[in-house]
Structure formats: C-alpha cells, structure tokens
Design goal:
With 865 residues, the chain is of the alpha/beta class. Helices cover 50% and strands 7% of the residues. The protein has 31 helices and 13 strands. Strands 6-5-7-3-8-9-4-10 form an 8-stranded mixed β-sheet, sandwiched between helices. The chain has a 3-stranded antiparallel β-sheet with strand order 11-12-13, with no helix packed on it. It has a two-stranded antiparallel sheet with strand order 1-2. β5 (580-583), α23 (593-600) and β6 (605-606) form a beta-alpha-beta unit. The longest helix is centred in the N-terminal third of the chain and has 55 residues, at 112-166. Mean pLDDT is 84; it is low at 1-18, 22-77, 83-89, 100-111 and 806-813.
Length: 865
C-alpha cells in the first residue's frame, strides 16, 4: 500500500517545470535534496528522506542544508493544514507560517523577510560548523586510537623481546652475579677529602710547571764560545723552570704561588659547578694540558703565548686551519701529549667508578627541604659555585687595573706586568697570569687635555699645514691606483749576524730598491704580528701609543668600532664603494679580517673562502700556501677590470711558516754559508730563503706587467716581520733591533708622473708602517689631508717608532723604540720640543679616532684638500 495517496493532497501541483519567477513573498522551508519536487507534495519527502521522516518520534526541525521548498504567502495555509493532518507538518510550523502570511499582507512591515533570511543563514552556518567540528573530532579520536594501538603493540613486542633475552641461562647467571655483587659494591669505599686535596695540589702544581716549561726554549751556543756545564744547566728549560719554582725561597718572588692560586680557583669552579670531583679533575686536566701544548707550539713559532684575542680563531671556526701551522719538529711532542692525555682520562674514569662518593658536596635537588642535612648541603653547593665563579671573574677583570684588589694581591706575590712583550710577561709571571691580564683590554690612556676645543684646534692647525704642503704639490692621490702589498715575512736574511749565502737570494728587489724610494721598516713583531703591521699601514695609527694590553687591534679594537678610519676611504670618497678592494690568498676569518675590512669600507675581501673567491690560487711544489705569483695575478685582474683608479690591498701567504722542505729544487741548500746554526735552523733558513727568491722573481715580473698597463699605478711593498727561525741570533740582545727590520720600497709604473722617483735616503732610510701613506704621497708628489700632513711632519722628526722589547742603548724593555734616520736608537726624552709637540698631537688624534668621542669626524681632518 502506497504511503501517500494523490487524493489526500489536493493541493499538489502538476510536475511541470516552470521558468524562474521573481519571488514576491513567502518563505523557504527545508525539504529533501531534489530540485524538481513540488513544494507541497509529501511524496517528495518520502522519495528521499522517507525512512527518516516516518521513524522519528518528534517533529522534524531541519532536513537538508542544500534544498528548501517555497511556500507562497497567500495560498499555502490550506495545504499546510492538510499536511498537518497527515502528520507531515507540525502545528507549530503552520502557526509560524500563518504569522508570516499575516505579516506579508501588511505592507508596512517589509523588514521581517530579510531578518528571517539572516536567521536561516546563521542556523545553516552553525549547523555546518558543528558538523565539521564533529567530523574533525571523530577523526582525531580515531587517529589517537590508531597511534595508541601501534605504541602498545611496539611496547609489547619490546617487552616480550626483553623477557626472552633475560630468560637465557647465561643472562640469568650474569644477573645473579651482579645482584650478589651489588651489596658489596654499594658499600664500597668513599675516597676521603684528604685524598682529594692531595690530588688537587699535585695536579694543579703539575699544570703550573707544564705551562711554565712551554714558555722557555733551549739556548744555543756558538761552538767557538766555551760555556761551562753549570751555565748550560741553569740556562736550559729545566733550569729555568726550576728557577721559577725555587725563586720563592731564594729571592722571595712568589710568581709560582700566583700561578698556583689562579689555576686553583679555576679548578674549584669546575668542582663546585659539576659537584663531581673526578669529572672536574678530568675537565681541568684536559683543558690546561691542551692549553699548555698549544701555548708551547705558539711560543716556538710566534715568540708569544696564547692571549684572549686568539680565541677568535676557535670561535670563528679556524681551529682546523691553525693545526696546519704545527711544525714537523713539534709533531712528536704533540703525539706524546695525546698519549699522556689518554692515560689521564682512563685514570679519571677508573677513579670515578670505584669512588663511592658521588657528590663532592652533599645536596638534594628533589627534596631540598626534607631535612636540615638536605637544606644545608644544597645551600652550601649553591653558595660555593656562585662564590668560586664570582672570585674568578672579579680576579680576571681587575688583574690589569692598578689599585684594584686583584692587582694589589698579585703585586704582593711579585706580579710585575710586562704586557708590552707577552713573551717576557709569560716567562716572568706565568702564561695564565698573562692571559688573564689581557682579559680586560684598555685601548689607550685618555690624554689630560682631550676635549672638543683641543681637537678643533688640532684640526685647524694641520689643515693649514696641509694647505702649505699642497701648494708645492701638483697631483692627487686618487688619480692613481695605489697597491699596498704586505709580503709575508719578507726580509733580507743576510742582514742577520751569522747568516750568509754564496748567491744573492733577492737580486731583483735589491735592484728595485736602488732605483726607487726605499729603506728599512721597523716592525713591532718578530715571528708574528702580521695583522698589526697591516693595521698600522692601513690606518696610519701606531701600536706604540696604545695601551700595553692592546696586543692585536684587528681582534681587540676594530670589531668594536663603529666607523674606523683607513686610507682606502680616500678613494671611496671619490669613486664610491668600488674605490677599494682587497686580496688575501688564505681564509677570510683569520684575524677577523672579514669583519675589519668591511668596517674599513673595502668593497670586497677576496680570499680562498670568500664570495667571490680569488681566481688564481696555485701553490709551488709541496708548499700549502698560494704562491706570490698567483697572488699578483689576482691584483692584475682587479686593475684591468676596473676603469677608474682604486686602492688595492694585498697580504700574501707564500712565505708563512712552517718551513719544512717544500721546494724540490732548492739551490740555497748548497749556497748556505751560514755558521754556528743548529740543524733545524739550517733547514728552516734554506726553505725560507728559497721562498724569498721566488717572491723576488714574482715581484719583478709583477712590476713589469704593471709597466705595460696604461694607467698610473704606485706600489707600496713591505715585509711585515722576520720569521722566528733565527734562534741563535735571538739569544744576543744586541740583535733585537736587527730582528725587527724588514725591507720596503715605493715604486710607480711608466704611466705615472712619479715614475723613476727616488726620495732622498736621508728621509726614507728608516720608517714605520704607519708612515707608508704619507711617504707614498710624497713619492707621488700628491696632495695630502690634514691627517697626512701630521704624519708627514712627524716622519721628519721621528722617522721610526715601534713597541718592541730591547735593552740596548740604555733603553729599558717596554719603552717605545725610536730610531733616527741613521737607524740609531733615541730616547723620548732626547726628542726636540717640536717633536714632542707633534707626538702629543698624534696621541690626541689616535685617542679621538679609536677610544674618544670622535670630534674629528665632524671636521675635514681626513679629507684631502
């Protein structure tokens, strides 16, 4: 029997599809999802939702979200009443439609229709949202159940596998053994604090002695000199270390106890922070053994200990590159240290296992307030850790500050700072004390009369001096390309006493020096200090004016400056960012050059690992470093690529230590006529000299190429320092100045107006790197800035000044070494009144440009007029 009968729904219209007509009134009611069904026919309802309609016990409130029937306002009520009688529509719905129809008959209430539509839309939106959230919730629950089931399955499998494993007879025997042994093991002996104190004292003392041993070197003696055995013993490394320890009894000098105190404080920090004695012992021993080894290697190579600024090599990712600098003769020492460390680590692990005491200071982090013992122990550990760290930080921060508690305490134990020469300071006070003394760097002492008015007067004074100089000069610096070449360790070895060859190692450069402006440069370094010479040549500032604690400006000063000045900015001011470029055929982060050159305003620092990197980077034979010939090719490329003049900086690497038989055909092995050298000295000298000869040939070819370029080009060439291979000569203090003199020349190509110029040797025989740009301006007959005018006048009064250690000529170590134009040492007191005033002005300028308020930045002090 059919559910619906046609005679029961007289109002049902015929199923004729009509065109859409505008809706004049009425309302939509929810219906099944059938677009062609009649609005009043229940059959439409039964056709799609029949089972749902006639099985629900309550009235239908909503059907589908997608379809509805339209019920006209005037003729639908009878139909609805009849549908109500059949149970298809509820009485409430009829009443509702009666109200709607009534409202439609009243023209003055048209706003009800949009309101009902909004309500309907909101209802449908809420329904859709609820349905979506419900679906998402079911999905999440299902996923959680699946994941939980997978985890449970995996855990069960692991558990079953574990039970299977431990049920093996062999495993059961092992478990039983350890269960029986656990009782006695739990009751094992705890090492006493007295035993800890013995280990603490022995290890700390051993590390102090090891560190001190690394700063000494075995002396060498000329075979012609008769030296008694006692003197040899006392001057040996063992004798010097013994003297360092015993001088507290013999001379009442307690530097050994000062070093012992410093290391003890660091050791205590490890103990109280970790609260594990053997772990702290392990860390402390490894740290200072590695530090002592690295310190010893650096002392042999660079003649200086490790300082805080060196840590930038490690933090900058250069530790692997530093390992390549370890010489062959030091490799066996490094291998021995590694063996000792391996045994030391094993011993610490064994003691840690057998020691029943786990915590050095009893404490309980989980239940600190459970008992008085827990509370007291936890509080004691916190206080001990904080106090030890605070003591170490305060001591390190104040050690270099005169009048502070740390400075006074160290002074009472014999501390006499000699930071002008870190080697002397490390040998006198211990390398750890030297390291901590440099932890806080003071840039420069503030001059008493430093203020805005004073600096304004200096700017005006040297502005007038620049005008006076420029009246006699016709050229501009920026009309030429200037190439400043720092040649790694370049210096004529035959000037060193005892060194000679049957053939000239550098004939070409000797010939160049005879025909152009040239002389000797007083270097502040021996065996190292490249970045310091580079800094002074680029900025015109002198290392001798800085505080003794400022050892390497490239690492300690420039990275912290906002706008450091360098001479390349003269070209930048005229040609923009492309006015200057730099090449260094090694790695950019060494000495933080990548940071410093960017601050100086160079467009690029082109290195092996830069972007862009250098194009030419071949080496010679077994040498690990880019050859000078290749380095020069990179400069040629930059000159040919750029249309306008520029300032170019090149720091080479070919002759960098170590020197270990790199070259296959070394004619200087047979040409070496030196006397009184050790076997290592001969090998190092011959390899180094072959490198100089290669540099000599490459430099001559480079200058020939520049002569073929139709652009005015001037080259400033200088060696930065001597290599630390002259150990025999270094024993004689009379040779200290000679070991700090390198070669330099200033040369212009054929296209330059200054081609063939050679300044009077009386004005160029000796100089310092800070004067190079003023010398070049003089050589080029170029106009100068007020700053260059100051350097020009200072050069005439004090030709060379450098901070080196020497005791010759009545000048004590640490004083700045001044040379006259004949190369003789002069004291600061003997300077003329004009020289002293120039030096005073120079100190004010250097303070203002580095640590002061930069009053000169608001003037034209550095601009060429």
């Amino acid at each position: 029997m059919p559910i619906f009968s046609p005679d029961r729904h007289a109002c049902a219209p015929s199923y004729v599809k009509l065109t859409k007509q505008p809706i004049a009134g009425g309302t939509y009611r929810p219906l099944a999802n059938d677009e062609d069904s009649n609005a009043c026919a229940p059959s439409a309802l039964s056709g799609h939702h029949g089972s749902k309609l006639y099985t629900q016990k309550s009235a239908i409130h909503a059907i589908s979200d997608n379809t509805s029937i339209f019920i006209s306002g005037a003729g639908t009520l009878p139909c609805l009443r009849e549908m109500a009688s059949s149970g298809s529509v509820s009485k409430a719905e009829i009443d509702n439609n009666e109200q709607i129809a009534s409202s439609e008959l009243q023209p003055h209430q048209p706003a009800e229709q949009p309101l009902n539509q909004v309500v309907s839309v909101c209802k449908r939106a809420a329904h859709t949202t609820a349905k979506t959230l419900s679906t998402a919730g079911h999905t999440a629950v299902k996923a959680t159940k699946v994941t939980g089931h997978a985890i449970h399955t995996a855990a069960t499998a692991v558990k079953n596998a574990w039970h299977t494993f431990i049920n093996f007879k062999a495993v059961q025997l092992i478990i039983k053994f350890f269960r029986k042994a656990y009782g006695p093991w739990k009751k094992r002996m705890r090492f006493s604090y007295a035993f800890y104190a013995i280990v603490f004292t022995l290890l700390t003392s051993a590390e102090v002695i090891f560190l001190q041993w690394g700063v000494y070197s075995e002396p060498t003696y000329d075979k012609s000199n008769e030296v008694d055995q006692t003197t040899k013993i006392l001057n040996s490394v063992a004798g010097q270390v013994t003297k360092f320890v015993s001088q507290m009894y013999l001379e009442q000098k307690y530097q050994f106890l000062l070093s012992l105190f410093t290391l003890a404080v660091i050791y205590l920090v490890f103990i109280f922070v970790t609260n594990r004695f053997w772990i702290a012992t392990l860390l402390f021993g490894i740290l200072f053994t590695v530090y002592g080894t690295a310190n010893s290697v650096k002392m042999g190579l660079r003649n200086e200990p490790i300082i805080p600024a060196d840590l930038s090599f490690v933090t900058g990712g250069d530790s692997g590159k530093l390992l390549s600098f370890i010489p062959e003769e030091s490799q066996s020492f490094v291998n021995s240290v590694i063996t000792v460390l391996a045994w030391f680590i094993c011993c610490c692990i064994v003691f840690f296992i057998i020691d029943g005491r786990r915590s050095f200071i009893y404490c309980s982090w989980k239940r600190p307030f459970a008992s008085i013992k827990n509370f007291t122990g936890t509080l004691t550990r916190i206080v001990a850790a904080i106090s030890s760290i605070a003591l170490l930080c305060s001591y390190s921060w104040n050690l270099s500050v005169p009048g502070s508690w740390a400075y006074s305490f160290a002074g009472s134990l014999g501390y006499t700072p000699s930071l002008f020469d870190t080697k002397i300071d490390a040998q006198t006070n211990g390398p750890v004390t030297t390291f901590l003394s440099l932890a806080k760097t003071k840039v420069i002492e503030k001059p008493k009369d430093y203020n805005r008015d004073t600096m304004t007067q200096i700017a005006e004074k040297y502005s007038q001096q620049a005008i006076s100089i420029n009246n006699n000069r016709q050229n501009d610096l920026t009309d030429s390309t200037v190439v400043m070449i720092l040649s790694e360790t370049f210096s004529d070895p035959t000037r060193i006493p005892g060194i000679s060859f049957s053939t000239d190692p550098i004939p070409n450069i000797h010939a160049i020096k005879d025909t152009t402006t040239s002389g000797l440069m007083l270097s502040s370094g021996y065996g190292g200090g490249t970045a310091n010479m580079e800094y002074q040549a680029l900025t015109g500032l002198s290392l001798s004016i800085f505080d003794d604690s400022l050892i390497i400006p490239f690492q300690q000063l420039v990275p912290n400056q906002k706008n450091p000045y360098a001479f390349n900015q003269i070209w930048n001011n005229r040609y923009g960012a492309d006015g200057s470029d730099a090449v260094h055929p090694y790695y950019q982060s060494m000495y933080l050059r990548n940071v410093d050159y960017k601050k100086f305003g160079f467009s690029h620092l082109r290195t092996l690992d830069s972007t862009p990197s250098i194009k030419h980077k071949d080496t010679i034979d077994y040498s690990p470093y880019v050859s000078d010939e290749e380095a020069y090719k990179n400069i040629i490329d930059l000159i040919e690529k750029q249309k306008h003049p520029q300032f170019l900086q090149l720091s080479t690497m070919q002759n960098h230590m170590p020197y270990t038989n790199w070259y296959i055909d070394n004619e200087f092995v047979g040409a070496d006529t030196s006397t009184g050298l050790s076997a290592d000295e001969y090998q190092n000298l011959e390899t180094y000299t072959k490198g100089l000869n290669l540099t000599d040939q490459a430099t001559a070819s480079f200058l020939d190429e520049l002569n073929q370029i139709d652009k005015p080009i001037t080259v400033i060439f200088y060696g930065d320092h001597l290599p630390s291979i002259y150990s025999t000569a270094d024993q004689d203090t009379e040779n200290h100045v000679a070991l700090h003199e390198t070669d330099y020349f200033i040369w212009s190509n054929s296209a330059s107006a200054s081609s063939g110029t050679k300044l009077d040797a009386s004005n160029t025989a000796f100089t310092s790197p800070n004067y190079f740009m003023s010398l070049a301006a003089n050589h080029m007959n170029a106009k100068v800035s007020p700053y260059l005018a100051l350097l020009t006048q200072l050069l005439e009064q004090i030709p060379a000044a450098s901070r080196i250690a020497t005791e010759t000529g009545g000048i004590s170590s640490g004083d700045t070494t001044y040379l006259d134009m004949s190369g003789n040492q002069i004291s600061k007191k003997s300077l003329s009144k004009d020289a002293k005033q120039l030096l005073r002005d120079y100190e004010l300028v250097q303070y203002d440009m580095t640590a002061g308020k930069g009053y000169l930045n608001n003037t034209d002090f550095t601009k060429v007029q």
